Structures
1.
Amino acid sequence: MAQWFPLVLALVFAAHCAGGTNWILSNFALQGGVPDRLRGRVFAADLMLATLTISLSQLVVAALVDHVDERVLLAGCGAVTLIYAVGWSLATRGLRRGTEVDQGASPASRRLAAEETP
């Protein structure tokens, strides 16, 4: 086990960096696609769902850890993460294609400003 520790440490570090990057890009996409007046509610719901998902996944693994081999649990968690990542990537294709940045203003902000001008 000791000979694998540096590799495991590097992989866990890479996974957390990737997770942080995903969180940043997700927030950027939400800021660009959500009208300003709804942004707080949407970000609150996003954080609530993320916290709920983390809590539920920890409860499921805790319930199974004494009954299932740890390699199976780790492989299962990795598979669920991979399936979620592919599904999220497919579901948000349109957001990536339509991304446009104009002096930090979101597309929704520009649409609202255009609607409000007489």
2.
Amino acid sequence: MSESIIDAILKLKQKCRIEEEIGSAHDLTPRQISCIFALRDGETLSASELSLCLGLSPSRGSRVIGGLHEKGYLDLAHHKDDKRYVMISLSGEGTECLKGIERQKSLCEARLLERLDADQAEEISRHIMTLVSVL
């Protein structure tokens, strides 16, 4: 193998600009995009759960959550049994933003797939999924 797997991953990350495309279209940072994805299946999480899910410290997670709440993308509510906990979910506006992000992801994937034949696309997809599963 002439190039290491890690070098190839770094090169791929450098070439893939989907987070920048989404971020500029929706005025979101990469962490804010990750936060919206973490809540996409109707999830309701506490601030600490969401921070953990994103791999952020509680203070950094709080800033990401606060920024999205200010934009109207998140609903915050006190936990029904323990008022010390704030539960976070996507607002209606956040759900609409997520739909826009998903459209952009689909367009990006279509641009990629138009450069590959079906066999290449299947093979690449299979290998990427394998890589993701072992990381």
3.
Amino acid sequence: MMRTNNLKPQKKKKEKNLPLPKGRFGKATQEVLSGGVLEKERTFRMFPFLLFLSFLAFIYITNDFTLESKIREISKIQKDVKELRYEYISVKSNLITISKQSQLAKRLEKLGIKENKEPLKVIKIKVNE
């Protein structure tokens, strides 16, 4: 003899009777925490709007992250420009110092070239027409 499968009657879970919160905030908090908000039809009608709000939040966060990275990049470039400006001023002052006539004379003297102490003579040629 074969037995047939029979469904056992399900026992209903006893819901704990929580004390009802007083006030509007307490009721709203209980609705959210118990999941009752998701069961309402109004929530399903508002789903596209909630999706739109989450999209805007994503765009806002992405924009903020991009802005912060750009600000870091700009500050780094400003620091580099400042350092290069200091280097430019330093190299320029060294060049001016080195290119002075007295400095050139000292450097050329080491090579055996001396500065001419006599004034230059100008040769003028008159052309008769």
4.
Amino acid sequence: MRYRLVMVKPVAQECPVARTAAIIGGRWTILILRDLLLHGPRRFQDFQNSLKGMAPNTLSDRLKTLEAYGIVERQFYEQHPPRAEYVLTEKGGELGAIVKAMYAWGVKHGDIKGEIS
């Protein structure tokens, strides 16, 4: 099995909000976290089914980045062929409050057309 080394860019901002946004603010990333928080361990195919329109290479990149920052962990459930599922680490679970706040804000301020008031 070949692994690609993911280089984690140092997040140099002094502001904690900016540092957090640099890690989880990429397109699709928060939705990956949402799925893990709502459904627990997920396989790659589960994410593809849930996140329609997300290219497989983008999903792979986001998962590798989250793994490199210690937010998700890959756990192998089969060795031949190797198959893995993704789970939140304790550090990743702490992001649940952010996702919950985003959900509450979206319910309060987003109408059915997707417009923000």
